Amino acid sequence: MKNITRLAIMGLLAIMFMGCYKQPRLEQMSTPVQFKLIGLDEPAPSQDEADVIVTTHIKKASYLLSPRTAEMPYTFTISVDGQELKEEVRGVEEVISDTDKEKGKGIHYILKKRLRLKPGSHEIALKTEERSSAKVKIGIGGGKVYTMSFEPVYGRKRGLFGGFGQGFLYYEIFLEGNRVSQ
Predict the structure, then answer these.
(1) Average pLDDT of the chain to the nearest whole number
(2) Distance CA 112, CA 103 (A)
(3) Helix, strand or coil, per DSSP, at residue 41
(4) Measuring CA to CA, which residue among 148, 137, 116 is closest to residue 46?
(5) 3 state DSSP class of 92
């Protein structure tokens, strides 16, 4: 009788531990904020949603040891509250530029995406293929279209700022034309 009782208790304990093992963790249960990638020419969102148009660009020089051509894609990763969207962008060979810091021969990559989100507070980040990143937390209201721009800053790692040929340093972030982060 004692053996049967012990076996029953051990069986119950085993079942309890198996149940605990299969329980999802609390952080796995929370669902990430969903966003939709929509066309740039879509109509304005309803009051239950908001759009953020994310734009960025970067110009890369081609070096002897690391040659770059316009056919080589450049990868940008946009992250909204931890949910990532990777985009490979084809470049355009460019000599003349609108910006002084991007004058000279190089490959220019441009990304422009429109994201549809729920109103509220969101953390939006941009990562480059060089593993540089910039992020900002913003609050958005429903029924509106917001414009967010990640503008590259070029220069030497130490000291003076310069053109894109000296290297990419970081992104400055602008929301509706106002600087919100460096």
Answers:
(1) 81
(2) 21
(3) coil
(4) 116
(5) strand
Q: Tokens 């429903």: give the residue.
A: 142
Q: What is the token pair recorded at 159?
A: 């000291």
**Rg of the chain on CA atoms, in Å:** 24
- Token pair 């602008």: residue: 174
User: Roughly how many angstroms between the first and final C-alpha of the chain, as a whole number?
Assistant: 73
pLDDT in tens, 109-150: 999 999 999 999 999 999 998 888 999 999 999 999 999 999
Torsion of CA 135, 143, 44, 111, to 10 degrees: 0
Q: Output the pLDDT for position 68.
A: 73
pLDDT at 16: 63
Single pTM value for the model? 0.74
DSSP 119-138: SEEEEEEEE-TTS-EEEEEE
Contacts of 68 by beta carbon, 8 Å cutoff, 6+ apart: 60, 61, 62, 91, 106, 107
CB-side exposure of 39: number of CA atoms within 13 Å? 3
Q: Are 55 and 112 in contact (CB under 8 A)?
A: yes
